[in-house]
Please model this.
Amino acid sequence: MIYNLAGLTIALFLGDIAPVEQNPFDAAFGVMTQDHGTDSPGCRGCHIGEQPAFGLYFGNTQDEVENFLITYDSGRLIDGGRDSVLATYLREGVMPFNGARWTDCQLEALYAWLDSLTSPYPTTIEAVSYSAPSR
Ligand code: HEC
Model:
């Protein structure tokens, strides 16, 4: 009985911490938040920082930057997903201004986030379709 209770406690504890939600913006922000520079793909020091510096001010924290990019000017920067102003500027090397062009891998991280914004059914749709009977 004592063992069962201990097991239950452990199960509840693990159940509580196990499903770590990963934000689709994590990877793209990891690139953006690097200090800007000629060898850097980052935006920090221009658009990102503790206070506005150079160009549009995106914010400082990940949440601020994500929120800004999504909402600014009715979504003008992210509208169109992979064809958006943001994606096109980074793919074509217009931004980061005076910095390192994003690699394909870094662009994939950006696309994954943009796709997550435009998809009406983020991750659950596959699970639903698997349970449907097929013949
Ligand atoms: C050296 C400073 C600098 C760096 C680094 C930089 N930018 Fe910019 N960015 C500017 C300036 C200046 C402008 C033009 C003025 C403006 O519209 O804010 C601009 C414009 C933009 C615009 C167009 C805004 C609009 O209104 O259409 C986007 C999008 C953008 N930058 C994204 C980025 C991203 C994302 C990064 C990092 C990956 C980055 N920039 C890095 C200085 C910089």
